[in-house]
Amino acid sequence: MNPYEAAQEAAQVVAKLTGADRHDAAVVLGSGWGEAAAQMGDVVAQAALADVPGIPPPTVVGHGGQLLSLDVRGVRVLVLAGRSHLYEGHPVETVVHGVRSAVFAGCETIVLTNAAGGIDPSVPVGTPVVLSDHLNLTGVSPMVGPEVPDGLPGRFVDLTDAYDAELRGFAHAVDPSLSEGVYAGLLGGAFETPAEIRMLRTIGADLVGMSTVLETIAARHLGARVLGISLVTNFAAGVSTEKLFHAEVLAAGAAARPRLVALLRGVLERLAPS
Ligand code: HPA
Fold it and tell me: Are 88 and 95 in contact (CB under 8 A)?
């Protein structure tokens, strides 16, 4: 089975697990965002993410591993509270499988959240930042591999508007103090060195993390629009004198939760047809 057929099959299981033929939008929750899941709307159905074929069980502390179906003022939202990363040893097609499945389940809007290291010292830890663009520095792409099957767009996806202008506008309308930044997505596995962070700043990155970019490419390829939001959970290496710990990433998420919930909820509500 090719990865697209696998995602189509997964979408059918999502429909069964949630009792909803289709969803309008999907939200992928990154490290520190997981607890926000149930507070964004009314929970209509809930399952383990690993019950969806092709989604492996999570291996990182703080990644919830839940699939939720929410009603947010009439907008049906699929929440993937947990994701697969390259640094866990998963292949690209596994990393993007959840997003592809969500698009095949009907989602025309994909909201990708993540925890990121802040490269810009003027953006405090605990601040959400809207992605304006990304640098895919993972060295891989979901568009590498055999020809895309007939009936789907070809591989050379236009990424000029990777992050949707209208969705970014919704985020700013909900939370006018939000800033925007360019996210550098790396393979990860370890945090960066200060020299790597200086390099990333030089090439135009404001944020650094280990996710999101491949999912954005996969979602854009299938025609969904994407909103990306990073939570700055720490200053990137060398930006401040403090050492980096995964626990710090989770704690920053907990402190910012009310703001993150209000932001996601506000954006999702604006997807309702007026
Ligand atoms: N670097 C890479 N990924 C991250 C970081 C970081 O500093 N913080 C949270 N995710």
Answer: no
